[in-house]
Request: fold
Amino acid sequence: MSNSPLTPGIVPGRLQAEAYARNFADHEPPLDRHEARVAADRCYFCHDAPCIAACPTSIDIPLFIRQIATGTPEAAATTIWSQNILGGICARVCPTETLCEEACVREAAEGKPVEIGRLQRYATDVAMARGLHPFTRGAPTGKRVAVVGAGPAGLACAHRLAMHGHDVVVFERRPKAGGLNEYGIASYKATGGFAQKEVDWLLSIGGIELRCGVELGRDVTLSQLEAEYDAVFLGIGLAGVNALRAPGEDKAGVRDAVDFIAELRQTADLATLPIGRDVVVIGGGMTAVDAAVQSKLLGAENVTIVYRRGQEKMSASAYEQDHATSVGVRIICNAMPVAIHGNGAVREVELAYTVETPEGLKPTGETFRLKADQVFKAIGQTLAGAPEGLAVAGGKFAGPAGRVWVGGDCAAGGEDLTVTAVAEGRDAAEAIHQRLTGA
Amino acid sequence: MANLSSDFIGIKSPNPFWLASAPPTDKQYNVERAFEAGWGGVVWKTLGAEGPPVVNVNGPRYGAVWGADRRLLGLNNIELITDRPLEVNLREIKAVKRKWRDRALVISLMVPCDEDSWKDILHRIEDTEADGVELNFGCPHGMAERGMGSAVGQVPEYIEMVTRWVKQHSRMPCIVKLTPNITDIRKPAEAARRGGADAVSLINTINSITSVNLDDFSPEPMIDGKGTHGGYCGPAVKPIALNMVAEIARSPETRGLPISGIGGVTTWRDAAEFLALGAGNVQVCTAAMTYGFKIVQEMISGLSQYLDDKQIGLSDLVGRAVPNVTDWQYLNLNYVTKARIDQDACIKCGRCYAACEDTSHQAIAMSADRTFTVKDEECVACNLCVNVCPVENCITMVPLPKGAVDPRTGRKVGDYANWTTHPNNPSAQAAE
Ligand SMILES: Cc1cc2nc3c(=O)[nH]c(=O)nc-3n(C[C@H](O)[C@H](O)[C@H](O)COP(=O)(O)OP(=O)(O)OC[C@H]3O[C@@H](n4cnc5c(N)ncnc54)[C@H](O)[C@@H]3O)c2cc1C
Ligand SMILES: Cc1cc2nc3c(=O)[nH]c(=O)nc-3n(C[C@H](O)[C@H](O)[C@H](O)COP(=O)(O)O)c2cc1C
Ligand code: SF4
Ligand code: SF4
Ligand code: SF4
Reply:
């Protein structure tokens, strides 16, 4: 293929084969044994450790790190998994700089936290490579639970229910389980098909039946599930996306960032995936950063993130922003799209500078244009396909109702993170277990 | 998960990890929290005779030695036995034992060296329902000056006498705790056995000065300008303790005498080493004082993983290494190894070179591009490079196969042969 980053339009194969392999390799390579020992040695084994409180799943971090330090990473993995059964993916995708590692006392002491995420990955990788799954199905209770959505929330819920001996059926509308682990997370964070490997590993506990290609609302209704099962858990994530509400949004080349990322994640040979020369990403969160970075890694010449408020308001962490700029992404803040121009396909994005006022965000009146042959919208996901009759607050399920529990991105409370979804799925399973058995 | 339940001289506990007699076991509050954290048993902080309790200093009582990153490697203390009234301790011991039936609770004792004193204290502790007594013949400071602690522990005849009194006046299992401040640890152990002890425990702390204040010219910890020697413990004393445990485990006079291993136990691995050298269980003080009671969780998970991996039970581990502890003269002089440097792991720091070139056998070559290689014709296999290399397993000792020629000596590697038959040994016996 003779395309290059300078080829106009949305085209595949802008890079050499090795460049794709290099660009999409493990973003943070695993620690080897020596590195893990050295990193583990830095942990002080704090009392009532602040890192534990900062982890949404409350992993006993000092204990698992000490278990690594004493040469028993398998025991460390058991410590991790007993709180967070998706500890493998979380180790790869958690924004640790705003979670556990931000709270680490060595961040306060030296500005260099213990590398908790990478140590967590080391332990879980070692244990998974040994084929360890240190949990067994509890004695059968005869109770049946339906879990809708095989994302982190649903999977964590299903596993904990299986541990308690309940029979679980997971309904997933996509062809594969994993949720955004499989269809959303940046591909350099979960290389080597890790998301599917982890799903298979998780299901190996037994007692969980996975039914892919079944959509709640289309193939089955909530009332059917309620009638057939003793409890229902909804972990359906946020399937909808916000609209830009700028004229020209429907032009060719304008697309939801999450769809682009899902396609990227399912593309075996990234040289076949078309990408623009001038890519503009609208948004300020993790999705915007991931779409922009991966556009750049696919060979786009110019990639710009445009965020309507100040940089300090971006929900993507400083670490993620630095990652974006380090690969050559430009970040423009305090600007919002007012129109998409082009004859059929996008050619330019027109943007207005903004200011924060007591009445809210306002355009300053000054506008400018960015060349664009591809525009990704990353301005937030929304709850879609919510069954009737469940209370919704702030665009999310308000909480459990009757025999229906909710968790993960679709539920109110907590940040929209993988690790939060795991915590909520696990806790819902405990609540369901308590309700079903009185335990 | 391997079953860690332990039976030490008839005293049962859910795991072999006990807290040693020291501040962590000085009161009900501590001991209950330790049991909640998972400790298998405790030896209560040493009780003294009826009457006004001892007093402690009111200035600092600990000194320390640190490694890199301020890791606590050694701790020294000038604390005495419990300074709380006897009745309070006895009441609390009884309450704890009632509540925690499955845990081991042993009472440590130190009273003046006369039969009545011992008879009296044994009588006083009788109805606590404690599982046994430990005789503290170990404290190297404060109590020794009063004719107790290591002052008794350093005289085997006294140990034997007191132990005999205890066995006469009590039905409780009796553990004699030994001081390491003695030349040959086997002598007090033999005395304890003669006196009828059910077990020995060791080591108590080692006489030491951890540091000197170079502005005020006083040992640390400094009390109003003066300091005194204290008892040393923690990871730094483990090698000394391991040797003493092994000596007792393999000596014909003391072989089979149950041992409770103490001294620097910080991780499951330390514990496993004590057990392999013949200890039936371990006691821990400094690690808990450094990291808190929770530390036992790593000891439990690590030891059970190890036993599972080895597919052995706890009792199979006890004493497993004892047959392999021998005297120097029986070591195989035809076992020839050479250092090997893993070039992929090597970070080219040159520490192995400095050590070997400056202080050993000039057996490591350094090239212009800082590649370090071993000269087999010079390497005596001393292991110094292995010990100074910062990368674990980067340098290993590889044995030469039998029949191979050692490039250093030009001699073939032969069958087992030791010093007793070596031609250079003036008193060598001819090989049979
Ligand atoms: C691009 C992107 C990057 C991200 N990067 C990170 C990151 O680096 N780190 C991080 O912590 N978080 C990240 N997140 C957020 C994280 O992925 C989510 O918070 C997490 O996946 C939420 O889990 P969940 O189980 O609630 O929902 P999801 O992962 O969305 O899973 C929901 C599942 O339900 C299924 N489903 C939906 N509707 C139905 C229905 N009607 N019937 C049946 N099944 C249904 C879906 O197909 C999906 O499989 C990212 C999100 C995005 C979009
Ligand atoms: C502050 C302190 C007080 C101690 N008090 C006693 C005691 O009262 N009786 C006793 O038998 N040993 C006492 N010891 C010794 C410990 O029980 C133990 O033998 C020693 O510390 C070695 O173990 P370690 O390396 O795990 O600390 C004390 C140790 C310390 C640090
Ligand atoms: S799950 Fe995430 S937040 Fe929790 S300890 Fe692991 S890396 Fe940190
Ligand atoms: S805060 Fe940091 S040093 Fe303290 S226990 Fe957690 S990881 Fe270790
Ligand atoms: S000490 Fe170890 S790491 Fe350093 S040069 Fe020698 S072999 Fe290499």
